[in-house]
Amino acid sequence: MAINAWVRMDMLGAVMCIWIGVFVLSARPVCRKLWYIFVIYMAVLFPLQYVTYVGLPEDTCFAYPWDHLFGWPSTLTKNVNFDIWFGLSNYAVNWPAENLIADFILLLVASCQLTVFRREGTDNDSIFVNDDYDLKPNNPRYDFIANQRSFVDFIKIAIFHYGHWITLIMVLIAGIGGTSLFALGYIMITFWILWQGNNLYVMNPLTNSFKSTLAKWKTLISYTVFTMFCKVALQLVGCVFLEWFYDSSGIQESMRCTVRQLFSIVCVNSIVQARKVVGADPLFPNETDLDRMCTVVPQEAQIGFDAIALGFLVFQLRIFHSWYFQHCMVEYRSEILLANRWVIVLSSLC
């Protein structure tokens, strides 16, 4: 879904980000029920989108109701960009097949996932039920940390024991890769979690209960989804209403540029960019001057790094709810106990 939103960068991409937020913040039993609705949504959307892209024959000379929202003619760049972002039919747009291909692949994968939900039962549900966030006795998975039976156990150690560090590094990369306000949020939340280290996973009710640990990680996931949604939604401003940052009465020019750069507002929609390549008119007469005086790196408006970070975060959250991570938490607790005892012994010797 995140890749689909990355490819689209339009209104349906923003809706897809909302779907992502619903699924990543819901328990698996809830996702299992909502997935039927999502598959129906995609199944209905796909043919409707195809009909919208094909549109009516130009020979009919039928004017769409939204053709002249921002003035005449209908081929005005602002009108066309507005239709592109909302996915509305427009005679001036040569719709590419990439969006339909991405939707078809997503519908195919979603249908396969629906089959998985039907057959898995409750085997893949979280091991924590009724808000009981404690170490579970009688772990059905053998201790792969203390006893490595094969080379696969070393891979398990890398994934389950050190995976949260790798995930935080990927999120940090998503933040370091930009200079916008969204990137700053990544850095702040990531260092907030890094600062507490493995103490987050020892299940000490006096310092950090595991419920609060999961809440911290869900905060990071929520921020990632929120950032993706904002970047996609701000494409409406960057592709249609960009002149606000050039001619906005009552706001100083430097302030307008600061706001634009803080939120990395620039049009990166692939269809709009393709029209620019073939010689489409600028969005407004002074668009080139605005881009020269107030530079924004287009890559910062993309959600590629955000989508990759989200993938790592969802996978890591899944690890936290597994039996395998219980062995890791025992190991973290043992390390802290041994370190404390060493300090006691050292202080007694001194």
TrEMBL record:
Biological process (GO) annotations held by this record are:
cellular response to mechanical stimulus; detection of mechanical stimulus; regulation of membrane potential
Q: Which GO terms describe its cellular component?
A: plasma membrane
Q: Which InterPro entries match?
A: Piezo (IPR027272), Piezo_TM25-28 (IPR031805)
**Which controlled-vocabulary keywords does the entry list?**
Membrane, Transmembrane, Transmembrane helix
Q: Which domain of life, per UniProt?
A: Eukaryota
In this protein, which residues make up the domain named Piezo TM25-28?
133-343
Q: Name one GO molecular function term.
A: monoatomic cation channel activity
Spans traversing the lipid bilayer = 6-27, 34-56, 100-117, 165-195, 220-246
- Indicate what this protein is called per its UniProt record: PIEZO domain-containing protein
Q: What is the lineage of its organism?
A: Eukaryota, Metazoa, Ecdysozoa, Nematoda, Chromadorea
